[in-house]
Amino acid sequence: MSPNPMPSIGLRRLAGRMLAAAAALTVGLVAAPESRAQETFRVGIVTFLSGPAAESFGVPARHGAEFLIEQLNKGAAPAPYNQVGFGGMRIEPVIVDENGGATKQVQELRNLYQRENVDAVVGYIGSGDCLAVAPVAEELKKFLILFDCGTPRIFEDSSYRYVFRTAAHATQDNVALARYMRARNINAGSFSLINQDYAWGQDSRGDFIAAMQQLYPQATMNADLLPKFGAGQYGTEISALARANSNVIYSSLWGGDLQAFILQGAPRGVFQRSQLVLSAADHVLQPLGERMPNGTIIGARGAYGLMSPDTPLNRWFFDGYSQARGGVYPVQAAYRITQALLGLKTAVEKAMAANGGKKPTPEQLADAMRGSEWQSPGGLIQMKLGNGHQAIQSMAIGRTRWDAARRQVVIEDIQRFAAECVNPPANMRSLDWIKAGFPGAKCDTPAN
Amino acid sequence: MQLALTILMDGLIYASWLFVVALGLTLVFGVLKILNIAHGSLYAVGAYVAASLVTLFASWGLGGHFALVAMLLAAVGVALVMGPLMERYLLRLFYARDEVVLLLVTYALFLILEDALKLIWGVNPYYVSEPYQLFGNVAFASLFYVGYDFALIGLAIACGIAVWFALNRTRSGKVVLAVIFSREMSASMGVNVDKVHMVAFTLGVFLAALGGAFTAPMISVQPGISVSVIIVSFAVIIIGGLGSIEGAAIGAVIVGLARAAAVHLLPEAELFSIYLVMAAVLIFRPEGLFQRAAARKI
């Protein structure tokens, strides 16, 4: 005799139970959106709310996230994002400050997953923070999207199951800049560089020099300056650049450092004698206004802001954000967090379609996101690198001009680059790809 | 020759900015024996208040050279409000405690002020770049410099001479020197030590705010500008000798020239150059170049 004998059930009672179960199931399915609406999806959002990166990156990213989440929760976003929240679940953001160093961020990430019980985390602007938190999410088996940081090393040096980056890394910025200059036959017989002395500045410098060696093999490199992050005073560096008198001055400076560099360099005539080329400068155009030197060649680390594509989705985002922020238009960080959250929404809804409409587990989310693609205001995002964990996207470069009538800096002569023209193919390290002469680059396809 | 002149000029411009800030730091240490970590935040407060005042003056139609008046007023205002407030109601409570406690207090102040700045001015940058054009451009060693940078050298020299003169050639200055040498002996001779402390600290705040106010036109004034200032200022006064005005001047010039030479000749050593000089000085003169040997107290 078994310890738990099956109770004998009469045929009529069995039929009755089956009918009741079927009815309950039907009611359940019909009411699913209703019950989903009661459920929430908690997202940890980590961005700089203080410190030097807050003004240029952290706070615009927060504003972008707040705008999008509010619209999604109202079901007010355009198709294909018009379902309320994430798969009918209301999005509940938990916003955390990224300032304070990598060690603090590791602890904060644990808190988000274990104390705040978030279902996913979208965050991290600093490359050092990204490198520190990715292994932690992997260890905890929790879903993490790195939305902004630029270092190519995340997925080129490691592989993850639960960690994704929904923005292209820094290689495309520098390859696109060099390609843009080549396409316009910009005189770059000599060039000088000024970059911050940390991961971002060093990686950008390396990529740009390598790209120049491919596209301008005869060019000579003059001054190669690496001031510390947050230096603020660039008088000596500007003298060195003026003495070098190169055809081109390249910089990956950003935020307050870039603004100080421009404010101190412009009156000394350096940018009239040399063509200024900036890899990530869209975010300083609004604050600097007419102080921005005309004719500067700039990138925005994607097709963002004034260089974003003319699509219904982008018009909705650009205009909606500008309206919500009192006329300030969205710049790169706002775009990048938006594409991360739209990618997360796509993954959640794809996973729910596969699991019968339940809130997805981190494993289901990871399976849904790996190798996926989705439309964003900045164009199509494709998870094509790092075994489907690293995005590539199209790119745009243009030249600045102060428009006195509109009282703003405009960007002209914009050139768009397809993602596969400026990003390495899968399973090839960025620097190796550049040094090999961009094998497999597809530059004839239009940017999408 | 041209390169040498460029290095000299770049070094002096950087040194002048550094000296104004480091002078306040070394003065406060000399009199109060406080290594004020919040000094960089006071520099930032000066920059923010100057940015606001210059904008306000411009809205009243007082542009051009009135901006310089606004910047000076900003520094005076910050000093008169924050100096007495901080010294009297916070630092004074800890004078009897260990010097490390005071160091921690000023560190706490630094953190508080950083957030207070964000509360008051937000995180968006402020620009007051117009004064930077006031003195035009100057050609030197076949390069163009901004006249404002030369004006800053003048300001630094004026500050140095004024403080040196006040300390060494006035009665009040002699009293301050007496307090620097021996607090107890000065008090026993009838010197109002508390008052000397407050005045010296307020003057230190003024110099920090002055540095910030006159730097504001060259940068975008935003959170984070205080950190790098305090680190490099410490380097200067350690080289010169804590509490020494001549030391701050020489230290600033050494750091300025070392940094300029590194940027022009060996850019990758730019950051290293300052600390290399500091280490070299500390090996041969652990108390700094101009620190007087302290008399043993019986």
Automatic annotation (TrEMBL), chain B:
<dbReference type="InterPro" id="IPR052157">
    <property type="entry name" value="BCAA_transport_permease"/>
</dbReference>
<feature type="transmembrane region" description="Helical">
    <location>
        <begin position="198"/>
        <end position="219"/>
    </location>
</feature>
<dbReference type="InterPro" id="IPR001851">
    <property type="entry name" value="ABC_transp_permease"/>
</dbReference>
<keyword id="KW-1003">Cell membrane</keyword>
<dbReference type="GO" id="GO:0022857">
    <property type="term" value="F:transmembrane transporter activity"/>
</dbReference>
<dbReference type="GO" id="GO:0005886">
    <property type="term" value="C:plasma membrane"/>
</dbReference>
<feature type="transmembrane region" description="Helical">
    <location>
        <begin position="272"/>
        <end position="290"/>
    </location>
</feature>
<feature type="transmembrane region" description="Helical">
    <location>
        <begin position="100"/>
        <end position="123"/>
    </location>
</feature>
<keyword id="KW-0472">Membrane</keyword>
<dbReference type="GO" id="GO:0006865">
    <property type="term" value="P:amino acid transport"/>
</dbReference>
<dbReference type="Pfam" id="PF02653">
    <property type="entry name" value="BPD_transp_2"/>
</dbReference>
<keyword id="KW-0813">Transport</keyword>
<keyword id="KW-1133">Transmembrane helix</keyword>
<comment type="similarity">
    <text>Belongs to the binding-protein-dependent transport system permease family. LivHM subfamily.</text>
</comment>
<keyword id="KW-0812">Transmembrane</keyword>
<feature type="transmembrane region" description="Helical">
    <location>
        <begin position="12"/>
        <end position="35"/>
    </location>
</feature>
<feature type="transmembrane region" description="Helical">
    <location>
        <begin position="66"/>
        <end position="88"/>
    </location>
</feature>
<keyword id="KW-0029">Amino-acid transport</keyword>
<feature type="transmembrane region" description="Helical">
    <location>
        <begin position="42"/>
        <end position="60"/>
    </location>
</feature>
<protein>
    <submittedName>
        <fullName>Branched-chain amino acid ABC transporter permease</fullName>
    </submittedName>
</protein>
<feature type="transmembrane region" description="Helical">
    <location>
        <begin position="143"/>
        <end position="167"/>
    </location>
</feature>
